[in-house]
Amino acid sequence: MSSTSRDVSVPALEVKDCQKRFKGYGRNEVVTAADNINLIVAPGTIVALVGSNGSGKSTLLSMVAGSLLPDSGQIFVAGEDVTDLPSWQRTGRVAVVRQNPEHNVFSALTIAENFALADAGKSRSFNLKRAAGPRVRDIAHAALKPFSMGLEDRLDALAGTLSGGQRQAVSVAMATSRDPGLLLLDEHTSALDPTRARVVMEQTEAIVRSRRIATLMVTHDMNHAIKHSDRLILMHRGKIAMDLDQEEKAGLTVPGLLSRFEKLTGETLPDSAVLA
Ligand SMILES: Nc1ncnc2c1ncn2[C@@H]1O[C@H](COP(=O)(O)OP(=O)(O)OP(=O)(O)O)[C@@H](O)[C@H]1O
Ligand SMILES: [Mg+2]
After folding, report:
1. Which residue, 47, 138, 183, 211, is most buried by CB atoms nearer than 10 A?
2. Structural domains of the chain sorted by starting position, each given as residue range(s) with its CATH number in brackets
């Protein structure tokens, strides 16, 4: 679905009463990673998801991506119940960029071939060399240019030869090039140095805004969480503990956010920008 044909009256994402438990270390210990999560994300909205380690951020993203099945509850993407669809049947509608650059691109393939794979979607028979032809090269060129890293002129370079920052730029460019209604970012800049992290974050925001892609962005960088979002959600022990809209988020500072978290939970929220 292209950004122009998307129905703006239907939420990009609806998570309804989702629960996910894991077996803990102890014999009978159970960890509730997602504790009755309810969340509605409007089309085109950028939602920052913050919270301490183990608060359930990745679990929530994995359930939405389809790599983890909730124990109970439902997930709707653009109004369609996708709860039981495996992740590969959600591609095209839901795109994911993970923390580790290695997990997002195939190192042994060229940039153009990686784009060809991302573009292939559901096609049954597929020839990689042929698929990475002029049409895909044009898509890759246009998608990579905004990052100003010169990657658009290196389409035949093996992805394995790229730096972490370059690979994440390729990952975001690939993830957004098929115009998904929903993009999931799980700490996608945290493995990068501060300068590269800033470039990738700024370009990510520019792209998702221009294409009106609703985005759920997990980050431990509180400055990014405040600056590059329309809405900020704080998770704690598998629950949504705080949900700030644009208006409530206006004027929020990093120290202000950290102190609100502390008052709410009695714990300290780690901020990667402070730790760095
Ligand atoms: N596959 C799994 N098996 C067992 N327990 C799991 C599994 N995945 C997550 N958990 C547990 O669920 C809880 C939530 O984990 P999750 O990875 O969602 O946290 P997170 O908020 O993403 O943390 P971080 O900031 O460290 O990435 C944690 O207690 C974790 O140990
Ligand atoms: Mg995580």
Report:
1. 183
2. 13-105+164-275 (3.40.50.300), 107-161 (no CATH)
